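Section 5: illustrative case.
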């Protein structure tokens, strides 16, 4: 067993930090040391922020986003286009689309994608609530912004079938050449998808 340079409390802090995505044991050690050195400026505010998060963050009952109010800020924003729902697998995808300022619409977080190998069926995802939201007469388009993976596309097809009776257009993101991408570097599948999704100039 490796020798420990710090007491059990500090080791516990390091171990907890090491569980965060993107932080290995070495960077967790550096982060812990930084927090300890900046106890007043950083550790105390971080503790307060974490405490508030534990107490106040909820999953939005309408769209599945996380927020300190329920329904969330996005769902209650009157400036959002009520006719479009963007379906994403995860809150991280919602944040990515918001960061890019793609569309001023509302969202629906599925909580994952269908994956028979991992035991994720329709019952594990927020699909029923999406279908009922899509039947709202105000909704005209459901955009399936799911990953361009087998699971993502299987989920998109499954939802498209379910929305057949709803009076909405279902669309999906284009697949193909990334912005700034060079054809020579693309894999065969991406090139094929780009060719199939070609658009008139
Ligand atoms: Zn919401």
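Designed sequence:
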């Amino acid at each position: 067993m490796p020798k420990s340079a710090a007491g059990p409390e500090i080791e516990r802090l390091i171990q907890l930090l090491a569980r965060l995505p993107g932080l290995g044991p070495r960077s967790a050690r550096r982060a812990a040391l930084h927090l300890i050195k900046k106890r007043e400026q950083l550790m105390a505010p971080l503790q307060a922020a974490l405490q508030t998060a534990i107490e106040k963050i909820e999953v939005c009952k309408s769209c599945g986003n996380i927020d300190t109010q329920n329904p969330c800020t996005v769902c209650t924003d009157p400036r959002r286009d009520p006719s479009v729902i963007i379906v994403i697998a995860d809150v991280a995808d919602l944040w990515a689309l918001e960061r890019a300022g793609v569309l001023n619409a509302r969202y629906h977080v599925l909580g994952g994608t269908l994956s028979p190998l991992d035991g994720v069926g329709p019952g594990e995802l927020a699909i029923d609530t999406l279908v009922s939201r899509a039947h709202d007469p105000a909704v005209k388009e459901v955009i399936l912004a799911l990953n361009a993976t087998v699971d993502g596309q299987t989920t998109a097809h499954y939802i498209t079938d379910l929305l057949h009776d709803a009076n909405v257009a279902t669309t999906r993101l284009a697949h193909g050449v990334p912005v700034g991408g060079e054809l020579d570097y693309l894999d065969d599948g991406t090139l094929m998808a780009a060719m199939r999704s070609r658009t008139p100039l």
